[in-house]
Automatic annotation (TrEMBL):
GO terms for biological process: carbohydrate metabolic process; glycerol-3-phosphate biosynthetic process; glycerol-3-phosphate catabolic process; glycerophospholipid metabolic process; phospholipid biosynthetic process. NAD(+) binds at G17, A18, G19, A20, W21, G22, R236. Its EC number is 1.1.1.94. PANTHER family: GLYCEROL-3-PHOSPHATE DEHYDROGENASE, GLYCEROL-3-PHOSPHATE DEHYDROGENASE [NAD(+)] 2, CHLOROPLASTIC. Keywords: Cytoplasm, Lipid biosynthesis, Lipid metabolism, NAD, NADP, Nucleotide-binding, Oxidoreductase, Phospholipid biosynthesis, Phospholipid metabolism. This is Glycerol-3-phosphate dehydrogenase [NAD(P)+]. GO terms for cellular component: cytosol. The active site is at K172 (proton acceptor). It comes from Thermocoleostomius sinensis A174. NADPH binds at W21, R41, R42, K89, S121, R236, E262. Sn-glycerol 3-phosphate binds at K89, G117, K172, D225, S235, R236, N237.
Length: 315
């Protein structure tokens, strides 16, 4: 059995996206002795050169750039043996697919792995300990990603439920906005704990409806990431919620925000999906109304508190 500190053969690791997460992941791979190529659409390194003889292509591109980047890769040639890793947490508005589903459809001959967990990039860049999940239907590919990125400060677990792993990381961003609202309104610890717990039930309801394994949502990529982003001011999604509670307009919040808050787009896609498929998502629905300027933060709280009384284990 391999341990985190075991040496591993040096791999060529191509990271797409030099934002907060791409840069942090590049640092982790570099510290493990791999040959890292960090590509950004604004950088000097061409995509062709970044892909040459690569062993692994990891995308940390925000959701809006994923389809366009995939299109660029499709016009280039790179080894079929290269593992594709998606670290994006979003949903595509056009297809309502997850990023890994888009990668797999575009590159059916490649192994696709999802990398997701409670991974606030700022803490990882500072060398604080963290754990994550590498999930794939091809276990050997997930294990390769595990060996490439694992270290004494970044513990990677494997999982064979890529969809559940990806949906946990994606859907919790909506709830992180709600948690930011809760804290921004100073509603207290009881309220935030109730919110996170009820939201977990909601996340599992949607995630399993879409094909994720229920167990996955209680792991690092589900509950773990939900806790990280709902309790940390480092989370951009949490920051959006917090600022909304102060009455700031969304456009102004996003303009000032450092980096991407995927939860904003994910909420819109999720509500579209949930209404088409009649999945009850009360918390996400209030986030949707708030983001779209239909209610105030205070009204969202009132709407959640005034819902019909029911047993805990019913929707
Ligand atoms: N930061 C974090 O803590 C974590 C983030 N994630 C996820 O990783 C993804 C990226 O997040 P993060 O790095 O924080 O966000 P940033 O905003 O810091 O970076 C986004 C990256 O995506 C690139 N990008 C956006 N649109 C395009 C496009 N059309 N073509 C090519 N590149 C594009 C940006 O390039 P450019 O700079 O040129 O605009 C940039 O490199 C998100 O889905 C996020 O949810 C997951 C785990 C942790
Ligand atoms: O996904 C993340 C941590 O796991 C990052 O969260 P934010 O995108 O809200 O900053």
């Amino acid at each position: 059995m391999a341990t985190a500190s075991d040496s591993t053969t040096s791999a060529i690791v191509t990271i797409l996206g030099a934002g907060a997460w791409g840069t942090a992941l590049a640092g982790l791979a570099q510290a493990r002795g791999h040959q890292v190529r960090l590509w950004s659409r604004r950088g000097e390194l061409s995509l062709e050169a970044a892909l040459d003889k690569t062993d692994l292509v990891l995308s940390a591109i925000s959701m809006k750039g994923v389809p366009e980047t995939i299109e660029r890769l499709q016009s280039l040639s790179f080894p079929t043996s290269a593992i594709l890793v998606s670290a994006t947490k979003g949903l595509d508005p056009a297809t309502r697919w997850t990023p890994a589903q888009i990668w797999q459809a575009a590159f059916p001959d490649h192994s696709v792995v999802v990398l997701s967990g409670p991974n606030l990039s700022d803490e990882i860049r500072r060398g604080l300990p963290a754990a994550t999940v590498a999930a794939s239907h091809q276990l050997a590919a997930a294990q390769r990603v595990q060996t490439i990125f694992s270290s004494d400060r970044f513990r990677v677990y494997t999982n064979t439920d890529p969809l559940g792993t990806e949906l946990g990381g994606t859907l919790k961003n909506v709830i992180a906005i709600a948690a930011g609202v809760c804290d921004g309104l100073q509603l207290g610890t009881n309220a935030r704990s109730a919110l996170i717990t009820r939201a977990l039930a909601e996340l599992i309801r949607i995630g399993t409806h879409l094909g994720g394994n229920p167990e996955t949502f209680f792991g690092l990529s589900g509950l773990g990431d939900l806790l990280a982003t709902c309790t940390s001011a480092l989370s951009r999604n949490y920051q959006v919620g917090y600022a909304l509670a102060q009455g700031q307009p969304l456009s102004q919040i996003l303009q000032k925000l450092q980096g991407t808050a995927e939860g904003v787009n994910t909420t819109n896609v999720l509500i579209d999906l949930a209404s088409r498929e009649a999945i009850p998502v009360p918390v996400s629905h209030q986030v949707y109304l708030l983001l779209n300027g239909k209610i105030t933060a205070q009204q969202a709280v009132e709407a959640l508190m005034e819902r019909d009384l029911k047993p805990e284990n019913k929707e």
